[in-house]
Amino acid sequence: MGSGNDSILDMYLYETNTLLEQLDGILLAAEQADTFSEDSVNEIFRIMHTIKGSSAMMEFSSLMTVAHRIEDLFFLVREKGMDVVPEQTRPDLFDMLFQAVDFFRGEIEKVENDEPLSQSIDHIVNKINSLIDKIQGNPTSEEPAEAESAPASETAAPAVGAVNQDYLFGIHVFFDEGSGMENLRAFMLINSVKDYCADFITHPTNVETDPSTSDIIADQGFLVWFRTSEERDNAIHAMNGAGSVREYQPVDAAKTSPAPEAPPAASETKPASPAPAKESPKADAAPAPAAKPAAAPAAGQQHAKESLISVNLSKLDQLMAVVSEIVITESMVTSSPDLKGLRLDNFTKSARDLRKLTDDLQDVSMSLRMVPVSGTFQKMNRIVRDMSKKLGKKAKLTLIGEDTEVDKTIVDSIGDPIMHIVRNSMDHGLEENEADRIAAGKDPVGEVILSARHTGSEVIIEIKDDGQGVDTQAVLNKAIRQGLAAPDHDYSQKEILNFLMMPGFSTNTEVTEYSGRGVGMDVVKKNVADVGGTVSISSEWGKGMTTTLKIPLTMAIMDGMEVSVGESMFTIPINSIHSSLKVSAKDVIHDPAQGEMVKIRDNFYPIIRAKELFCMEQGCDNIEDGILMWVEAGEHSYCLFVDELIGEHQIVVKPLPNYVNGFGVKNFGITGCSILGDGSISIILDVINVYTAAHNIF
User: Fold this and answer.
1) From 1.10.940.10, 3.40.449.10, 2.40.50.180, 3.90.660.10, which CATH number describes the 557-697 domain?
2) Domain segments of the chain: what residues?
């Protein structure tokens, strides 16, 4: 039972989080337009209706109540049009909705962490209620007034008397005793009936918007009236599938109330469509008040969803692990020492075919894990919007390359770093007031540009602002005060900017809600480094600042170049290698400060000897016996001296055990290992940390 409940909860969390992301996007677009389009109103109504229903099923009453009240609000907006919301009330409406999204997110987080949900929701419910009051107190036509007068006539109507002479064939429905929320159960029943017949009326009518109808339904039952007995017979199918229905019986109003006096009022025919009759094939043939023609888009969306499937990430991890083992085993089979010296044409051909299939399998399993960065990027719209309001700065966010795809685990890991950098741009980067920007010849509205692009095996994400940039002198002075920099040393601009990523370094003079807490770019650097990426900062005073994240597409499988030092094997990531070259002793220059250097294409690059760096006994000492691997590490380029170049392989990255990591091997450029075809282990090198380790040692 427990696992079933867990899977229902997982589906609830997934669905609700997805809906909240959709809602955020709709709200941001609507706030910019200062109005909701008809589609947006319908979409928000649908989202709230879904959250309300699923939260009620999960018994999360706080979420259900807030969603229900917002649904009530948007029912009014949908019936009467956006004009019903006065201009001066719209900012309050947007703020309330953003607050509601934050409330939902907070509650969902509590559910995920197994914490108790909020009991006090009065503050947000009161806000929604006051907005509903403002809207209801602002009728734009005579029609709403008529609709509001409906409940009185409904309550007074006889329990089983027809309320309209055209609708004489009814079904009298009773819900389970004590089921609660009878009005919502009646509304869900109305939606089910629409699948079978679009033209009907109900008593009571406004079950969705008036919770007080629950008592009437509990006492007297719920009545659905049809024009013909055939339509009524069809609709009985809906009763069989409806939840909480205790009993139902057909009722013939012609026998109990042959001559109703009242002509049909507008409010009586309207309740057939508290929500658009999306699925009903007969919707178009029904009278206008009974159904709204919103069927086409919904049907299209339904079809698109059928081709998608949600898969738990742990299953994809398992798939990746199995594929990785297949790649290793295939390599072991084809490189088996038992086959050395044998001429096996058929085996070689089959091995080639197998290699092609394992490559395809690997590509497919990798592509399953690839997701666009758009989800992470879109969330930054909300950060910029909230900070613009709180800090009083006008700013806009421009997104470029949202469709760029990265491994799911990497997308999850870079969300927080990107958010922190965007906050930095808003808080530190953009000027405090418009006058300063105008004086500098800039647009009064600041701009933060978030872009992503592929370069082969890595993705480059840039966060750029057109603010005031970094005051390098102030950063240097702060670094000297904190003992991070030597007062008499001449630092380059890049070195000064790197101080921003030192632990505990903050340029903010006062702690604000968004920054200056000492948890800064060092955390960004660490989070990005954890997924094998690098962070670099560039800035021009008065022009702005750019932070660049370089991140591998995936961390599970990579192309690497195998090299040897003595009997040990090392793997260098292909995307870090410029080229390999042989040099003679006379090409090596001995620089007193930099050590050994070599000239390549009019530039000088330091030589790092892997044998010396890793304190190995075996390996070449003479430069002419080995080979130089010219590699690039961030802003540094250097040549790594190794014994021999073995060849290129696709390798499966295996993390090092925690016991080994405890010795700080990552600081020496060792990031992981891989199992080769003959069963031996190859150490994977991180060329950036190899450089920093070498320059601390030499």
Assistant:
1) 2.40.50.180
2) 2-140, 149-298, 313-371, 373-552, 557-697
Residue numbers of the chain with a pLDDT score lower than 70: 1-6, 137-163, 178, 240-243, 254-307, 456-457, 503-520, 553-556, 593-594, 633-635, 677-678, 696-698
Residues 6+ apart with CB under 8 A from 448: 380, 384, 395, 396, 397, 398, 422, 425, 426, 429, 430, 463, 464, 465
- Residue 156: is it exposed, middle or buried by C-beta count within 10 angstroms (0-12/13-18/19+)? exposed
Architecture of domain 2-140: Up-down Bundle (1.20)
What are phi and psi for residue 109, nearest 5 degrees?
-60, -40
Architecture of domain 373-552: 2-Layer Sandwich (3.30)
Structural contact between residues 659 and 675, judged by C-beta atoms closer than 8 angstroms:
no
CATH 1.10.287 holds for 313-371: yes
- Residue 254 has a pLDDT of 54
Of 583, 572, 625, nearest to 607 (Cα)?
583
- φ, ψ of residue 147 to 5 degrees: the values are -60, -40
Q: Contact at 8 Å (CB) between 225 and 162?
A: yes
Kindly report the CA angle at 12 between 7 and 16, in degrees rounded to 5?
A: 150
**What confidence score (pLDDT) does residue 243 get?**
67
**Using one digit for the tens of pLDDT, what is the confidence trace for 398-454?**
888 888 888 887 888 888 888 888 888 888 778 777 777 788 778 888 888 888 887
Query: β-strands 568-573, 681-685: how paired?
Result: parallel
Packed helices 374-391 and 90-112: angle between N→C axes, nearest 10 degrees: 130
Expressed in percent and rounded to 5, the helix, strand and coil fractions of the chain are 50, 20, 30
pLDDT in tens, 575-621: 788 888 888 888 888 877 667 888 887 788 888 888 888 888 888 88
Output DSSP code: residue 685. Answer: E
Residue carrying the six token digits 């304190």: 615
The Cα 171–Cα 193 span in angstroms is 11
Could you report how far apart the first and last alpha carbons of the chain are, in Å? 63
Q: What is the CATH number of domain 149-298?
A: 3.30.70.1110
Pick from 444, 344, 329, 332: which is nearest to 395 by CA? 444
Name residues whose C-beta falls within 8 Å of residue 437's C-beta, 6 or more positions apart in sequence.
Answer: 431, 443, 444, 446
